[in-house]
Amino acid sequence: MKKLVIYLVCEPGTPELAQAAVEGGADIIELGIPFSDPLAEGPTIRLASERALSRGMRTAECLQVIADVRSRVDVPLVPMTYAAILEAWGYDRFVADAQAAGATSSIIVDLPVEEHQEVKRIQLVAPTSTDARIEICSANTDGWLYLVSLTGTTGARSEVSPALAGLVDRVRAKTEKPLYAGFGISTPEHAATVARLADGVVVGSRAVQVAEDGPDALRDYVRSLRTAIDAAS
Amino acid sequence: MTTQTFGVYGGRYVPETLIPALDELTAGWEEAKNDPAFHAELRDLLTNYAGRPTPLTRVERFAPDRRMYLKREDLMHTGAHKINNALGQVVLARRLGKKRIVAETGAGQHGVATATVCARFGLECIVYMGSEDMRRQKPNVERMNLLGAEVRPVEIGTKTLKEATSEAIRDWITNVETTHYLIGSCVGPAPYPELVRDLQRVIGDEAREQILQREGVLPEAVVACVGGGSNAIGMFYGFVEDADVRLVGVEAAGAASLGSGRTGVLHGARSSILADTDGQIADAHSISAGLDYPGVGPEHAALRDSGRAVYLPCTDEEALDAFHRLARTEGIIPALESSHALARALDLDAELIVVCLSGRGDKDLAEVLARR
Ligand SMILES: Cc1ncc(COP(=O)(O)O)c(C=O)c1O
């Protein structure tokens, strides 16, 4: 069965949202720890991060949210953030505290694979990655590999990136690890298309938008993705 | 591929999408650096298009009690040192086959320099600029438009240089296959800090030769303003091996990334930055758009830690006083950025000083007149 990963920004209301996403059929929840200058994010997640920061969601508060989500759901929780956050908190300390909060692994968007290998994390590869980079990233990834389906920042798009199929082929030739694709995926049709190519589907910006309408809306939305993925695979 | 770092600073903290482009740029720069044809082309442009070498001007009326000289980067084509870097990078970008250039700008000087070199070589040019900076540096926005560049207003956050830089990097992430990111200072992921330094060191190399010719001795101190730090690092590199020459960088008091910052990550590099204890970037404040930035080049952080250079703060008011004083005593209207260096040079306890006059002040007239 293909996996469905849902991204949410850490906010006081996130535990309830995460529970709804899992009820709707999410297999993994990514929990964004907001950073003031997130280079990989398009407008939706950037604005959501700004909002969370203006409400005081700093690293300690986000770790608490992860723990609160943990008490409600059983699926893996993956903190997703930027190197600046770990620089300030301490790399080892972050690993320990995230684990204590119930997190599994992490995604550090701007921390190249060579740096801080003591931080076990899911590596990302992109359409621009050379075969040599793909090899290093897949060898070092913790569990699955995150395929950035397009050359660009996060944000809902009108169609699945035409670059994804070629990227999947190139990565498959290098690794047996599960490949989950994200960036730009927003509709059940997109999710079905991606599920035919990769082992999992990551939905971020659109989930963050729908989450603004509350847990019920998010549960329905995630369920529509789940249904489409299961029908396709 | 190894990543150039400056002690514990530097690195390339960017999304994986950009890593191959940084590798390509690093290799391209290595190749260009060792290619006499590259240097010949750049030298020709700097001399016959942009106006190098720039003079070294003694300012007796501005600083009557000492021997102070100004390195006149304000006389460069487009009015600031920024064109040294823009020309070098555009020649490099052409070697790499890039047809589209993106840049960020604060004061607009780097944007104008980039728009200028893109016009000269027929390249598409997109400049990101905070809307607050577009307001306070309006003449430069008009110049960029005239030169055929597209200025994209950035409405995020403080609407200044930090956000403009983030947006330029996001554009680069999206268009990396066709686009060269022409960064305006010695900041950003490796190899940019080193690349920009190498392209700006012409300031210090010339100044050293000129002061030796004029005075027969090296200066006691060289002084430069520090925003991202490119005119300062260019000036310092001419003298960094001369252990007796003091290297003095001057930061805006409200944007003192070196004086009151902490180690953190911003725009692809670890450096000294204005941030809170959680690593969230803080707002900078300066009357001078070119210094209004919460980060600084990683090499400056290393120079500070080693003690080889010192960094002093300067308030808006002190800079304004120096601005007026240079205009009235010497007939030179300095950029507000450079005015910070002038202000601290005036009270430095040194007899023989070279100050980098990084740019001219035409762009600042509206802002300055509104203050009086
Ligand atoms: C005239 C002038 N000087 C200095 C600066 C600051 O940049 P840097 O510290 O990189 O020299 C700027 C930036 O816009 C500038 O326009």
UniProtKB/TrEMBL annotation, chain A:
Signal peptide: none annotated. SUPFAM superfamilies: Ribulose-phoshate binding barrel. One of its GO terms (cellular component) is cytosol. Keywords: Amino-acid biosynthesis, Aromatic amino acid biosynthesis, Lyase, Tryptophan biosynthesis. GO terms for molecular function: tryptophan synthase activity. Pathway: Amino-acid biosynthesis; L-tryptophan biosynthesis; L-tryptophan from chorismate: step 5/5. The keyword Lyase applies. Its EC number is 4.2.1.20. It catalyses: (1S,2R)-1-C-(indol-3-yl)glycerol 3-phosphate + L-serine = D-glyceraldehyde 3-phosphate + L-tryptophan + H2O. HAMAP family: Trp_synth_alpha. This is tryptophan synthase. It comes from freshwater metagenome. The lineage of its organism: unclassified sequences, metagenomes, ecological metagenomes.
From TrEMBL, chain B:
Keywords: Amino-acid biosynthesis, Aromatic amino acid biosynthesis, Lyase, Pyridoxal phosphate, Tryptophan biosynthesis. Pathway: Amino-acid biosynthesis; L-tryptophan biosynthesis; L-tryptophan from chorismate: step 5/5. InterPro entries: Trp_synth_b_CS, Trp_synth_beta, Trp_synth_beta/beta-like, TrpB-like_PALP, TrpB-like_PALP_sf. It is an enzyme of class 4 (lyase). Residues 50-351 form the Tryptophan synthase beta chain-like PALP domain. GO terms for molecular function: tryptophan synthase activity. It holds the Pfam family PALP. This is tryptophan synthase.
